[in-house]
Amino acid sequence: MARIVIAEFMDERAVAQLRARHEVLYDADLVDDMPRLLREAADCDALIVRNRTQVRGELLAALARCRVVGRLGVGLDNLDMPACEARGLIVIPATGANALSVAEYVVASALLLLRGVYGATAEVAAGRWPRARLGQGREIGGKTLGMIGFGSIGQTTARLAQGLGMRVMAFDALRDPHDPLYATLNVTGATLEAVLAQADVLTLHVPLQDSTRGLLNAARIAAMKPGAVLINSARGHIVDLGAVAAALRSGHLGGAAIDVFDTEPLAADARLQDCPNLFLTPHIAGQSAESNERVSFLVAGQVLEALS
Ligand SMILES: NC(=O)c1ccc[n+]([C@@H]2O[C@H](COP(=O)([O-])OP(=O)(O)OC[C@H]3O[C@@H](n4cnc5c(N)ncnc54)[C@H](O)[C@@H]3O)[C@@H](O)[C@H]2O)c1
Q1: Segment 182-238, tens digit of pLDDT
Q2: Domain regions of the chain by residue span
Q3: CATH topology agreement for domains 3-97+289-307 and 99-280
Q4: CA–CA separation, 74 vs 72, rounded Å?
Q5: What DSSP state is assigned to residue 92?
Q6: pLDDT band at residue 299, thresholds of 50, 70 and 90?
Q7: Concatenated DSSP letters for 12-36?
Q8: Backbone φ, ψ for residue 165 (5° rounding)
Q9: pLDDT tens-digit map of 78-95
C-alpha cells in the first residue's frame, strides 16, 4: 500500500477511489501550511496538487520517497519540470480534461465583451433606460477569432466559435502555418503579426514558459485591431496587464476578460478599477462541476496506474 498526499481540492469520489487502494491524506488547505506540507511530503509515494502548490525547491527536496506527482489541471508552470525529470518523478497532468470549460469561458466572454450591454442592471433597476447608449453592441457572427496557441484548448475553442459563425485564425510557435490540422479544422494558420492585426477577438492558449513570458506586451497590444477585445485565460505574466488597462482607457481595446494574474490572489490594483468593459475572474476558466470531476478522475486513474 502506497501513501498519497493530496494538497489541494479534489473531487471526493475520486479521492475515495484512491483510498480504496492506498493510504490517503486529503487536505484541500494543506497548500497553505508549508511546514506541515513539507512533513507530510517526506514519506509520500505520490503527491497530488492543483496550481497553487509550488513543486520546486524545498518541497521537491522533501519528496524523498515520492515517485508520482499528479497535477489537477494542465499548466505545469508551478512545477520545476527539469528538476522533476532529474529526480525521475512521473508527472501526470489532466491533459484535455478542462478544455471544454475554458473554451466555453472564452466564447461566453467574447459574446459579453462584443455586445457590451450586460453591465446595465443597476441603471435599468434604478429606472434609467440606457437604450440609445447600448444599442451599438456587436454581433459575434462573422467576426474573426484570433488565437495564440493552438493546442487542446485552442482547438476546442475554435470548434465552439465556428458554431457561432466566427472565422478562426491561429498562431502557434510550434506548428507550421501549413500544418494540415489547420485545414482539417477549417482554421487559418497565420503569423503572430497577422493574428494581432486581424482578430476582432484575441484569445491566448499558450503555457507560461520563457518563450511566452511578456508575449502580449504594450507594442503587440498597440498592433491589435482597434476596438478588438482580448481574453486571457492562459497565465499571468504572458500579458502586460498595465498595458491592457491603458488600452481599455484609451479606447484602443474594446474590452477584456482576464482570468489569470501575475500574482494570485490579485491584490487591489488601482489600474483595473473602473476600466471600461473589463471582466475579471479568479482563475476559474477551467473549473466547472463537470471539469472538476473529469480532471480528478483522470488524475486518480493515472496515479493508481503509475503506483501499481
Ligand atoms: N484559466 C484556467 O483555468 C486554465 C485552465 C486550463 C489551462 N490553462 C492554461 O492554458 C494553457 C494551454 O492549455 P492547453 O491544454 O491548450 O495546452 P496545450 O499544450 O495543449 O497547447 C498549448 C499550445 O501552445 C503552443 N505554444 C507553446 N509555446 C508557444 C509560443 N511561444 N507561441 C505560440 N504558441 C506556443 C504549443 O505548441 C501548443 O500547441 C495551459 O498551459 C495553462 O497555462 C488555464
Answers
A1: 999 999 999 999 999 999 999 999 999 999 999 999 999 999 999 999 999 999 999
A2: 3-97+289-307, 99-280
A3: yes
A4: 7
A5: E
A6: very high
A7: HHHHHHHHTTSEEEE-TTGGG-HHH
A8: 85, 15
A9: 999 999 999 999 999 999
Catalytic residue among 71, 138, 220, 283: 283
State if pTM tops 0.85: yes
- Opening angle at CA 214, ends 205 and 179, nearest 5: 40
Question: Hey, what's the cell of 177?
Answer: 502555418
Q: What span, in angstroms and rounded, lies between the C-alpha atoms of 272 and 279?
A: 10
Mean pLDDT of the chain: 97
Q: Rounded to the nearest whole angstrom, what is the distance from the C-alpha of residue 83 to the centroid of ligand 1?
A: 21
Instruction: State the Cα torsion 13-14-15-20 to the nearest 10°.
Output: 90
- The predicted structure's pLDDT at residue 82: 97
Say which residues have a Cβ less than 8 Å from residue 295's Cβ, sequence separation at least 6.
11, 72, 73, 94, 97, 98
Q: How confident is the model at residue 282 (pLDDT cuts 50, 70, 90)?
A: very high
pLDDT for residue 202: 99
CATH of the structural domain 99-280, one choice from 3.30.420.280, 3.40.50.720, 3.40.1390.30, 3.40.50.300: 3.40.50.720
* Whether domain 3-97+289-307 has CATH 3.40.50.720: yes
pLDDT of residue 104: 98
Strand-pair partners of 171? 148
Distances (CA, A) of 292 to 57, 88, 102: 28, 28, 12
Q: What is the pLDDT of residues 248-258, one digit of tens each?
A: 999 999 999 99
Residue list, ligand 1 pocket, CB within 6 Å = 73-75, 98-99, 102, 148-154, 171-175, 205-208, 211-212, 233-235, 259-260, 283, 285-286
